[in-house]
Amino acid sequence: MNFVFWHPYLMFHQAAYIRELANIPGNTVHWCVEEELPRSYRERGYPVPDTGKVQVHLAPTSEQIGELATVPGSVQVFFGLRGFPLPTSAFKASLGAPVHRFLMSENRYEPGAQLLPRWLIYTWDALRYRRHLCGVFCIGYSGRYGGARFFSACGHPGDRIVPFLHVVDSTPGQHVPVQRDHKEILYVGQLIVRKRVDLLLTAFSQLNLPSARLRIIGKGEEEQNLKQLANQLGIADRVSYSQGMPNAEIVAAMAAADVLVLPSKFDGWGVVVNEALMVGTPVICSDRCGASDLIDNGRNGYIFEANNAHALLDRLRSFYKEFHWNRAELAATESTRLGGTAVAARFQRLAQQLTK
Prior knowledge:
Layout: E1 2-9, H1 15-21, E2 28-35, H2 39-43, E3 55-58, H3 62-68, E4 75-79, H4 85-94, E5 100-106, H5 115-129, E6 135-139, H6 147-154, E7 161-164, E8 183-188, H7 197-205, E9 212-217, H8 223-233, E10 239-242, H9 247-256, E11 259-262, H10 272-278, E12 283-286, E13 301-304, H11 309-322, H12 327-338, H13 340-354
Parallel strand pairs: 1-2, 1-4, 2-3, 4-5, 5-6, 6-7, 8-9, 8-11, 9-10, 11-12, 12-13
Helix pairs in contact: 1-13, 5-6, 7-8, 7-11
């Protein structure tokens, strides 16, 4: 099969399966991007991903876009049709050609004042484009606030919206029992309002587990407010902060922690969930994070109701009281399930089903 992906840049959360897709016999994979990696990501230490056998086209010309977007019988995957010039241009160039078009998008069902305008805009897009699409690969699919509900409400056929995910490469990090006299809860991410780290601090303060410690890795505009809140809650001496570190050190911190918590009031995905599970660390995740799709309550973690500190507290209590797991087994299972090879096979199978 011929696959052509249209992205704004070489997305490190998509590279693992796109690379493996090119390793499947009989496949040819093109990846067209506006730039290798945005400056903001380079400054945060993200590397340009390994693309393997994938044929990368950097800042293609109009002529190249026209050629690649019209390869007969090809599967054309457009990462968003709003806000990204290259996917939009390529989609328009493909119209009328004998190709199979797919939209790929993160869930856009973010509650708040912008939800109605966003729904109206995406509904207009669906009315214009849905007849040209074979389907929608939805990153963050399930639940009351999931992408399946959002894109269906916009007018895309429900049987053409399929669950998908962000993917990261496996890392050599594995859980190794740490000799320490405390339990460790870990948060990794930006310190911004949307992430609701304040909710985690509130729940942690009520956990009544004196041996527990909370480690926060990240930086952002809310850092001082969060430190003040920890002081007010009387837990400042049990909360530690690390502004930033190389990815390998973050993965090692995940592998050493008892549990990772992602308390966001909304996240299109939340790739820290993949990273933690793949090193055998269970995850407690809010139901408004797309990556909650990966959580099977009681097997690899728990899901809780977003913005509900009591619900998060209950899950933390359940974790320390009831959760039993084999960390090495969990890492092996999740690394296989969420790895590039398995996801590439899943992607190709879904594409074939939706183009019949």
